[in-house]
Amino acid sequence: xxxxxxxxxxxxxxxxxxxxxxxxxxxxxxxxxxxxxxxxxxxxxxxxxxxxxxxxxxxxxxxxxxxxxxxxxxxxxxxxxxxxxxxxxxxxxxxxxxxxxxxxxxxxxxxxxxxxxxxxxxxxxxxxxxxxxxxxxxxxxxxxxxxxxxxxxxxxxxxxxxxxxxxxxxxxxxxxxxxxxxxxxxxxxxxxxxxxxxxxxxxxxxxxxxxxxxxxxxxxxxxxxxxxxxxxxxxxxxxxxxxxxxxxxxxxxxxxxxxxxxx
Length: 263
What we know:
By secondary structure, this protein is an alpha+beta fold. The protein has helices at about 10-25, 70-75, 130-145, 145-160, 165-185, 190-200, 210-245, 255-260, and strands at about 35, 40-45, 45-50, 55-65, 80-85, 90-100, 105-110, 115. Strands 1, 2, 3, 4, 5, 6, 7 and 8 form an 8-stranded antiparallel sheet that branches. The model is unreliable at about 1-5 and about 20-30 (pLDDT under 50).
């Protein structure tokens, strides 16, 4: 049976796509960050990020910031900030643009830039070695924010994976992709771009951050369906068929009295 986008793995990935796009489209009043003259750090709203160490989406707790005197003297374009992950206590290093330097405080932009980016995760153990290496590098491109390099690597990884699978595999993978994108209600323009990146034969189209956010989850879902889910289903069916031939006459009964004595 051809994998469909209605299994648990695809449902999770569809949710991940919606989550990524919602994060990119989320709008609201920008709340600045301040370093006060007494070196106090003022942050009106908490900051949360996915931790590259533990993988949790957790709050970042401020630990250290540059002193007011140093910022006022050097007037840098960016200031480095040290946080710790609320989930695992590992240090997180970020930077923010310096907006204004006043007599009593330094105003930093609310958009914190991560120095350590979260690496995308995948169950690589189910992939052939060549495909595993390419997919790792592809997802690393996304983690680094190199979106068009990521799109180019998506095409190469998909082409390499499809090459030994036969002519019909490309059509099956395409069906999986489109069913999953429909389930997540991805718009037609983004769907067309993702399809072109993965399966067209011409030049790889440029992608926006929003399209890359959909593309990364779409890529992971297609590879999950084709390798991980298939391998898990085969293993489960093998176990089921092994025990399917057993009857009450061939099953060794449990000596319940003996177990009670041992207990």
